[in-house]
Design a protein that fits this description.
Length: about 625
């Protein structure tokens, strides 16, 4: 029978209509009328009951937002509030906050379409103008898109992942509508539309980061040649629009978060769910070949949550929540219909994470938490795609069955919801103070805004914060990141940081200076000496920087790093990834250097020698 097809067509019409509220109401009435017919047909065996993958029973009808909230369970003292829902929000994919507190979302009705080209998808601006906690203003910023899978706001425009392109969209006349669009990068694939470029996120160095999935081959032309890759973290310089790869590996990660020190983390599907990513690294991948001589890096977890389908990742660091819910990572579990929690702990130059009890359980298979972000009020915002189909297999087998009439945005509140902190009108001096805010979102946004403004007038103030012993750690880290983002870090200052008593500052000095001043001979000399630093974080950045600096004798530095890194699990992999291109031509020189090292105290170097032998 055609009952199911009629319902799907009506839903599609509803999502396209400008009179959406009326259409959804009508749709509900029509579905209610047709439901008995469908039930009768099902009883006769005319309709096959379809159970989506990873679900044990038919998903049943969708719940209203209020009923969905009633079914959710959260820890004591927490409650879930509705911020926006259909018809204002439909098929939401990605989300970002701007400095005015507005929420930017992308919506997709084209999913799971594989063909590139114009579509029906759009970017919306949601705003709570009367500050009652609910969105009351909805504007369409851009239309004609095709599965816009990532969004970020900054540097004078809106950055949108719209495969095959990364777009930079601008509103030049102030009417909240895009009237100028530039293609920043192109060549992303659409083979698997669950693995499109996604998770556009501002990094601590002022670059825009994103990710691409393992079964989505891409070829992105750059000024230095075409980059061919599948699963990789990329970054874009917002000033020059230069596109580069930061690292490669994992699966189809969908969610990037940075901790206060500036370390990057991603959540991934099918394989292990949490990864610490560092520049030049190559990580375990779900499928496909590795480049020759890859020594892959593994995840930072040994535990698993309910089922291996994750979407979104947020770093929880906010005074709006009790202490036990701070400095943890949260991620959406699609098959589990919940929000998982992992707690990080340092392990040499990398991290290890352990599981915590879930932060939220929806008890509703339609719940699909695709984004989790701390908002301007310090609360966690959860974007819910809300669909019966979680997997690409279901969506590809029955694209008309993909729900296109729902979407929700929730807020998780503990006690009294704090007032929102918006920074758009703050002076640079006020932004410097905001770098020490208890809300991670405020700190990160202040960092980005100071970067955009080139730290004008506050460079000395920021340098003083880094230097002062009494500056709290997180405030100091974001002061460094603001200077780096604003390209206001001088070589002289960076060299002075190399002698700072805080290892995190020394690590940032090497990380940033190697990126900004790769031709500096004094920097190369300083980094050479720092290969004997006692801090794993510093040694990791020295290993990476050595591959960038022009006036440095690389082999001795890398061997020295390994001689001082003991049994660190990450550093040998990073050294090898940077070193192996120089082998076997320099194998004899390498072995001569290694003879001077006590391998019993440098197990990482001993492991690396096995890789050297394999390549020779």
């Amino acid at each position: 029978m055609v009952v199911g097809k009629i319902i799907r067509q009506l839903k599609q019409l509803a999502c396209q209509s400008a009179c959406l509220g009326f259409q959804v109401t009508c749709l509900g009435l029509i579905v209610a009328c047709l439901a008995p017919v469908a039930s009768a047909q099902q009883a006769k065996g005319d309709i096959k009951v379809y159970i989506p993958r990873k679900q044990e029973t038919p998903p049943g009808p969708p719940l209203s937002p209020s009923d969905a909230i009633k079914k959710m369970t959260v820890p004591d003292g927490f409650r879930v509030e509705l911020v926006a829902a259909e018809p204002d929000l439909l098929n939401p994919v990605a989300m970002a906050f701007d400095e005015r507190g507005r929420i930017w979302v992308t919506e997709s009705f084209e999913y799971p379409r594989h063909e590139p080209g114009p579509g029906r998808d759009r970017v919306k601006i949601l705003e709570d103008t009367n500050r009652d906690g609910r969105v009351d203003s909805v504007k369409i910023f851009a239309e004609g898109l095709n599965i816009p899978s990532g969004i970020a706001v900054g540097y004078g425009g809106v950055w949108v992942a719209n495969s095959p392109d990364i777009l930079f969209m601008q509103d030049t006349d102030g009417d909240d509508k895009a009237d100028k669009t530039t293609v920043v990068a192109t060549g992303f694939g659409r083979l698997d539309t669950h693995e499109l470029p996604n998770s556009l996120t501002w990094g601590p160095d002022g670059y825009l980061y994103g990710f691409n999935g393992v079964f989505n081959p891409s070829k992105v032309p750059t000024a230095k040649g075409t980059l061919q890759f599948t699963c990789a973290m990329f970054r874009i310089d917002p000033r020059t629009k230069e596109f580069t790869l930061f690292c490669e590996g994992t699966s189809n990660p969908w969610g990037i978060a940075f901790d206060p020190q500036g370390s990057a983390f991603v959540s991934a599907c099918v394989i292990d769910h949490l990864w610490h990513l560092t520049e030049t690294g190559y990580y375990h991948r779900q499928g496909g070949p590795y480049p020759p001589h890859t020594w892959k890096i593994d995840s930072i977890v040994k535990h698993k949550h309910q089922m291996a389908a994750y979407c979104g990742l947020g770093y929880m660091d906010t005074a709006a929540y009790p202490e036990e819910y701070r400095d943890v990572l949260v991620m959406g579990n699609l098959h589990g219909s919940c929000i998982n929690v992992d707690k990080l702990q340092r392990q040499g130059s990398t991290y290890f994470a352990t599981g915590r009890p879930d932060l939220l359980s929806a008890h509703d298979v339609w719940f699909m938490p695709v984004v989790q972000k701390i908002g301007p009020d310090g609360c966690l915002y959860i974007l819910d795609w809300y669909d019966r189909y979680h997997c690409y297999q279901d969506a590809s087998a029955d694209p008309e069955g993909v729900d296109r009439g729902h979407g929700r945005l929730y807020r998780l509140v503990h006690g009294q919801r704090p007032p929102a902190r918006v920074l758009g009108k703050d002076s640079n001096a006020e932004l410097v103070k905001a770098l020490g805010d208890a809300n991670v979102m405020v700190r990160e946004q202040a960092t980005r805004l100071l970067g955009e403004r080139n730290c004008d007038g506050v460079v000395n103030q920021l340098e003083s914060l880094v230097k002062a012993a009494e500056t709290p750690f997180k405030h100091r880290m974001h002061a460094i990141q603001a200077l780096v983002s604003g390209r206001a870090l001088t070589l002289e200052t960076a060299l002075s940081w190399c002698d700072h008593n805080d290892a995190a500052v020394r690590a940032w000095a090497v990380r940033a200076a190697a990126q900004l001043y790769p031709t500096s001979k004094p920097l190369a000399d300083k980094v050479t000496l720092m290969a004997a630093d006692k801090a794993p974080d510093v040694l990791l950045q020295v290993a990476i920087a050595t591959g960038k600096l022009q006036h440095i004798d690389r082999l001795p530095v890398w061997v020295n790093v390994l001689a001082h890194s003991g049994d660190d699990s990450l550093i040998p992999h990073i050294v090898w990834q940077n070193l192996h291109a120089e082998l076997p031509a320099k194998s004899e020189q390498l072995l001569a250097l290694v003879e001077k090292v006590d391998l019993e105290k440098a197990s990482g170097l001993a492991e690396l020698l096995i890789k050297v032998a394999e390549k020779n």
